[in-house]
Amino acid sequence: MSLALPSPRPIAGEPGRNAILAHLLSDAVEALERDTERARASLFRAVALVGEMPASPPGARRGGLASWQAKRTIALIDEHLEGGTRITELAAHFNLNQSHFSRAFKQLFGRSPQQFILERRKRAQGLMLTTDSRLCNIAQACGFADQAHFSRIFHRLVGLSPNAWRRAAMSA
Question: N or C: which end of the chain has fewer CB within 10 A?
Fold first, then answer.
């Protein structure tokens, strides 16, 4: 299934980024029907790319992480999502202390690294709906220390235990 999408509105001074974004979104639309993981990956990259776009004009001091640091941080988070990502390890990768890295990350992405990682891990909901895997396996695949850790975080984010959410979603 191929949809004709309107041309993206160019962002001043960012023609290369527009082309990448258009390609990622086009790829996601094409993959949506047959390869949801590819579509999801393309959408995550597009969201990350949009999140990196400067809010102020080029040349204005805005702080936060450099563009290359933001891209590398997202790549590191995605690479280690299943095994868990520690903020101290991310900060050390750029020779920054944890506090400075966390402030710079939040300034750029609008949320803390922990919140960003938890949002990435919400993919567990997708796995609970599309597979018959046990919750302990899903927890491990999404980078949680164990099922109890997954259950605590999931309950805090969603308001239900993973098992109760899965039952309710499956019956709906």
Answer: C
> Residue 146's pLDDT is what?
85
The answer to whether 39 touches 31, Cβ cutoff 8 Å, is: yes
Q: Is the dihedral of CA 153, 155, 158, 159 positive or negative?
A: negative
Task: Tell me which of 119 and 59 has the higher pLDDT.
Answer: 119
The whole-number pLDDT of residue 14 equals 54
Q: Where are the domains of the chain?
A: 7-53, 63-110, 123-171
Class of domain 123-171: mainly alpha
* ∠ Cα 166 111 102 (to 5°): 120
Considering only CA atoms, which of 92, 111, 95, 93 is closest in space to residue 103? Answer: 111
pLDDT single digits (tens) 7-54: 445 444 455 666 666 666 777 777 777 777 777 777 777 776 666 544
Q: How far apart are the first and last CA of the chain?
A: 27
Do residues 19 and 46 touch, judged by C-beta distance below 8 A? no
Cα separations in angstroms, 107 against 40, 57, 116, 144: 25, 16, 12, 26
d(CA 40, CA 164): 25
